Amino acid sequence: MENIVVTGGAGFIGSHVVNELIEKNMGPIVIDNLSSGKIENLDPRALFYQQDITDLEMMERVFMLHKPRYVFHLAAQISVSQSVKDPIEDARINILGTLNLLNLSVKYGVEKFIFSSTGGAIYGDDVSEIPTSEKEFPKPFSPYGIAKFSVENYLRFYSEQYGLKYVALRYANVYGERQDPHGEAGVVAIFSKRMLANDEVIIFGDGENVRDYVYAGDVAHANVLAMEKVENEVINIGTGIGTSVNELFALLKEITGYQKEPVYADPRPGDLRKSILKWDKAKELMGWEPTVKLEDGLVKTVEFFRTEMGASE
Ligand SMILES: O=c1ccn([C@@H]2O[C@H](COP(=O)(O)OP(=O)(O)O[C@H]3O[C@H](CO)[C@H](O)[C@H](O)[C@H]3O)[C@@H](O)[C@H]2O)c(=O)[nH]1
């Protein structure tokens, strides 16, 4: 069996990638420091190292031992607002941690490096077209987006200099089972959990900010297709469909049976007004398309939180 490393495999999106690989009988080796990932997220059939990507010595041991053919890199400092508060820490993990993995990938002969980048945080607000394609030159507005774009540039360098093949996937707003609703996580997880607990739901601003919500299972599938079908490309992964926070609230209200009205609060500083991604390139190059409609994905997500909350009562 080919060895495949998934960093961040105990995290939200990473655990979906792990599941998809296991379904395909490609049991992966997971590296995760459990800073935001959880052991419960992880399929027990995956081989697990609780290690930090910034620890070069430990990373080298894993690479030396397993000589992976493919690396899916999803471990990251995931909070945009945290990156604004502490750009150095964000860069330490998201840039320097990634460079550790890139150096080791070259040294130990990794065939392809599949990187989780961002669509929402990379293009910024001032775009020439919405839905936005990969042709748009990135103008990231946060240290988080700057770090992701830096890594994309390093990937190009490593491929030209050392022949390391790569794919960078720029995700829209990913939602689904196992998203962590605490702190800075995505709006779908936050709203779902609050509605199920009958807590207040807060909408920042007027609720007309628009996002492109893509289901985590579809994102996981895009990762596996990227491994199999393309090289040295940057590819958007989204649905091309925009949904406002007010619309999202209404959909989740219906699904959960929530009775309260939302509480409108001040706009969140730095929030984009509108972000929607074109996904034609993903279709063209690797035959990917979003398969789970938002309504259906929300039902699955709410079901997950309902079960999880029931289990912890
Ligand atoms: O309690 C909340 C939480 C969010 N929102 C609104 O919901 C929309 C989406 O916010 P998210 O925090 O879910 O996501 P962002 O669009 O800010 O996206 C950022 O946060 C995401 C977290 O899932 C990803 O990291 C993504 O890459 C990054 O750009 C925004 O208009 C936000 O103001 C609310 O109204 N109430």
From TrEMBL:
<dbReference type="InterPro" id="IPR001509">
    <property type="entry name" value="Epimerase_deHydtase"/>
</dbReference>
<dbReference type="Pfam" id="PF01370">
    <property type="entry name" value="Epimerase"/>
</dbReference>
<feature type="domain" description="NAD-dependent epimerase/dehydratase">
    <location>
        <begin position="4"/>
        <end position="238"/>
    </location>
</feature>
<dbReference type="InterPro" id="IPR036291">
    <property type="entry name" value="NAD(P)-bd_dom_sf"/>
</dbReference>
<protein>
    <submittedName>
        <fullName>NAD-dependent epimerase/dehydratase</fullName>
    </submittedName>
</protein>
<comment type="similarity">
    <text>Belongs to the NAD(P)-dependent epimerase/dehydratase family.</text>
</comment>
